Amino acid sequence: KMIGSRLRKRSPISVRSAKHWL
After folding, report:
1. By the 8 A CB rule, do 7 and 17 touch?
2. Contact by Cβ (8 Å): 4, 22
3. 14 in Cβ contact with 7 (< 8 Å)
4. Tell me: the pLDDT tens digits for 1-22?
5. Where is this region: Disordered (predicted)?
6. What pLDDT, on a 0 to 100 scale, did the predictor assign at position 14?
7. What's the Cα-to-Cα distance from 2 to each of 5, 9, rounded to whole Å?
8. Cα dist. 18→6, 7, 9 in Å?
């Protein structure tokens, strides 16, 4: 969701979490 997109721009590690949020 929107939070996932923000984490993706914040840190590379968040990219992995972003996939879970999506």
Report:
1. yes
2. yes
3. yes
4. 555 666 556 666 666 766 665 5
5. 1-22
6. 64
7. 5, 11
8. 9, 7, 10
Q: Where are the alpha helices (DSSP H) in the chain?
A: 2-10, 12-21
- Reading the block at residue 10, the tokens are 């914040």
Q: What are phi and psi of 4, to 5 degrees?
A: -60, -40
- Residue whose tokens read 């979490």: 17
Looking at residue 2, its pLDDT comes to 59
Tokens describing residue 1 = 């969701």
Place of tokens 């590690």: 13
